[in-house]
Amino acid sequence: MNILQEKAGSWGAEIPAGLTATEGRLYTLRDNANPDIFRQLVVEFRQWMKDEGFDNKPLIISEYGVLMPSDYLADDIPSGDQMVIDFMRASFDFLVNAKDPTLGYPADANRLVQQWLWYSLNDQPFDPATGRGSNGALFSHLDPRQITKFGVAFRDCVCVLLATPTPGPTKTSTPTPTATPLHCPEPANNAREGACGPIMPNVTYRSYISSTNDPRDWFYFDMATWHTIEAWLTNIAQGCDYDLYLRDANGNHIITSPNPGNADEHILWGPVAAGRYYLVVVSINHTWSASVPYALRASFGQAALPTSTPTLGPTVWGPHKLYLPVIVKRHCSQGHECWQASDTATRVHSRTRTPVPLATRTPVVPTDSRAPVPLA
């Protein structure tokens, strides 16, 4: 399942054999990673199943993902990569949770989809010269032992899906955290090494950008388990413009809330792995206020993970099967080591699927700056 335009003689899915139409649905290159269109197509297919009398059957998406290269999706490769990751997260969330009492599968609590597989495990990146390859591979094509940024995102999503609460005693009510002043030494907290913290979840901290020599304030927190990070920056002084940044343990940028003026800032990111993270309040255009403190609050509550080590192969989460990639080492001729993807996961469920090279499935995607390539 891929979001591709239907147009004769052009890139995309072409027109099915036997039809006289020259075009059907027309999508842009960026639509290939559009989660809203993905949701729409799933619902429409479930509607078709109902109309044809297949509503009491499970729906299995045997392959889906993002085919377009990242620089086709956005103005630069990092932005395109993030579109792929966002599409993965949004589609996983939809596939796990989407239900409809009239369209869903009754035996699965009316969920729309029962099984799905992300493409690909380690297909090669798109090569304009050959028209082969795709985007979103979980492991490197050249070295399947090397996980990609898409593989990390896949791992993070699956770990959260597998999280199960640990039974414990009945909780007693506790007071809601109140605003707490935070005194941080200046100018030390202008840099990561002098960051204030650790800040606590769901507690409001107040501080100042107090002069032109105080361009930013760093805060840190330590997260013990996988979880989503959410943060709010409010009460920004009139006439000031502050942005809110989220950075990883090494200070690398993750995401920014860049609202203009003194509008509130908000970040929602994840789920992400355990570790140290930083929130940075940054003054824009040297604006500051020594009399009105901003308010910073973050939410990163704890989510318990299973204590046992997951087994290789398919892992069952509720009634769903999440197919996790398995890489196996085999010995080839002349003593060389060969690495390849195992089909163990799909064999367990008697649903072996061998990926077909992209050139035999999907035409090459031209853009205005790239000469069209004949359809494979």
Protein model, in words:
- With 376 residues, the chain is an alpha+beta fold.
- 16% of the residues lie in helices and 22% in strands.
- The chain contains five helices and 15 strands.
- Strands 3-4-11-6-9 form a five-stranded mixed sheet.
- Helix 3 packs parallel to helix 4.
- The radius of gyration is 24 Å and the shape is elongated.
- The two termini are 19 Å apart.
- The C terminus is likely disordered.
Could you write a compact summary of the structure shown?
This protein has 376 residues and is α+β, with helices and mostly antiparallel strands. It has helices spanning 35-51, 70-73, 77-97, 149-161, 344-348; strands at 60-65, 115-119, 180-181, 205-207, 216-223, 227-234, 242-247, 253-257, 265-272, 275-283, 294-299, 314-317, 320-323, 327-331, 337-341. It has 2 domains: 30-163 and 314-360, no CATH class; 180-299, Sandwich (Jelly Rolls), CATH 2.60.120.
